[in-house]
Specification:
The chain is an alpha+beta fold. The chain is built from eleven helices and eleven strands. It has two domains: 51 residues, Helix Hairpins (Orthogonal Bundle); 260 residues, 2-Layer Sandwich (D-amino Acid Aminotransferase, Chain A, domain 1), CATH 3.30.470. Bound molecules: nicotinamide-adenine-dinucleotide (NAD).
């Protein structure tokens, strides 16, 4: 019987300080929509925490930011329990890491006895996640992701977003279905909105992501209604009675129901095709209708998704490739220069 490893006091202090720093920035980002550091800096800090935990697994706390979905439910909104959990995404920051991830996933798929996966490859929209609950085709509730189990009730604000239908088109809607997507501000609308603010002598909004999050989390829906919010669906939660077998097939159905699906996703058979997608969108990432911070690669088939499962924080059937940070927010700089 091995002796329990007792971490030194200073190591634990170092670990706690690092975890607290991540928590601090997470709270600013999710709860106040007002980050103090860039996403790239945050990602580097988070990576340091992950690496620290890999070296000292005995220190990992249950409430470590690596063990849970970031985001809380603030007192400003009523709490809403999601019917099915909402997860975050595992990030990779280089093509080498991505390829390693894909090869591991391919091996897991084969080991589980499933045919080779097709990869639903889509843009990682830089906005915030919402969970829409439709009962018999009627939008009855909308919530932020929160900690993944419980989100914030933003129904009244979501009702002001034109992209989101209050009643689904067509027929045969399930009794209860959770549609997940990203609320964002299109780049063009963001620039126009900021120009109008500047013309009125007001401070412009910092960037589309925080503006989208701040706009959706307004206490007064009339304020949300003034912001140019849009949405694209990228997932599905509770889905009893839904007979689709894959994510892409579900997108087709959601589109037929009048929900906004992205024009950019593709279902690809090989890692090489995924790579080509990443390169293509890397070149045109600043000329798309919304900002992106990466590409999401998902196993398309639902049965294979279920076989791979998830950790306490992320699905094992999806990964987010993050583009290198040097291209971030030149727009913001331009606007500040013009003020
Ligand atoms: P994440 O944003 O990396 O990934 C999960 C989220 O991606 C999902 O919840 C969903 O909302 C979104 N998403 C966008 N497009 C998607 C698609 N096509 N399919 C599925 N999901 C899609 O993870 P996270 O845990 O929400 O947060 C980490 C992100 O937030 C990082 O980008 C990080 O840099 C940033 N962050 C920044 C700070 C800061 O201080 N600057 C602090 C905390 C977090």
């Amino acid at each position: 019987v091995g002796e329990a490893i007792v971490p030194s006091e200073s190591l634990r202090e170092e670990y706690d300080a690092l975890a607290d720093e991540v928590r601090h920035h997470r709270a600013l980002y999710y709860n106040q929509d007002a980050p103090e550091i860039s996403d790239a800096e945050y990602d580097a800090l988070y990576r340091r925490l992950e690496e620290f935990e890999a070296l000292h697994p005995e220190l990992i706390a249950n409430d470590s930011p690596t063990q849970e979905v970031g985001g809380e439910v603030t007192a400003a909104f009523a709490p809403v329990e999601h019917l099915a959990r909402m997860y975050s995404l595992e990030d990779v920051f280089s093509l080498d890491e991505l390829e390693a991830w894909v090869r591991r996933a391919e091996a897991s798929v084969a080991a589980a006895g499933f045919p080779a996966a097709a990869w639903l490859t889509e843009l990682k929209i830089d906005g915030l996640a919402v969970n829409l609950l439709y009962r018999n085709g009627e939008l009855v509730r909308a919530a932020t992701r929160g900690d993944g189990r419980t989100g914030e009730d933003v129904t009244h604000n979501v009702l002001t977003i034109k992209d989101i239908p209050t009643r689904l088109e067509g027929e045969g809607h399930p009794e209860e279905v959770e549609i997940r997507g990203e609320v964002y501000i299109p780049t063009k609308a963001f620039n126009e909105f900021n120009e109008a603010l500047i013309a009125e002598g007001k401070a412009p909004l910092a960037n589309p992501r925080n503006a989208a999050a701040g706009s959706l989390r307004q206490k007064d829906p009339a304020e949300t209604a003034k912001r140019p919010l849009s949405m694209f669906v990228h997932g599905i939660g509770a889905r009893a009675g839904l007979s689709t077998a894959s994510q892409s097939e579900t997108y087709d159905l959601l589109k037929a129901w009048g929900l906004p699906t992205s024009p950019y996703y593709e279902v690809l058979d090989t890692y090489e095709e995924v790579l080509a997608f990443i390169e293509r969108f890397g070149e045109k990432r600043h000329s798309l209708i919304h900002e992106i911070d990466g590409i999401v690669v998902k196993v398309d088939d639902f049965a294979t998704q279920r076989a791979l499962g998830h950790t306490s924080r992320v699905p094992r059937w999806a990964v987010a490739f993050k583009y290198p940070p040097e291209e971030v927010h030149t727009q913001l700089l331009d606007i500040q220069v013009n003020v």
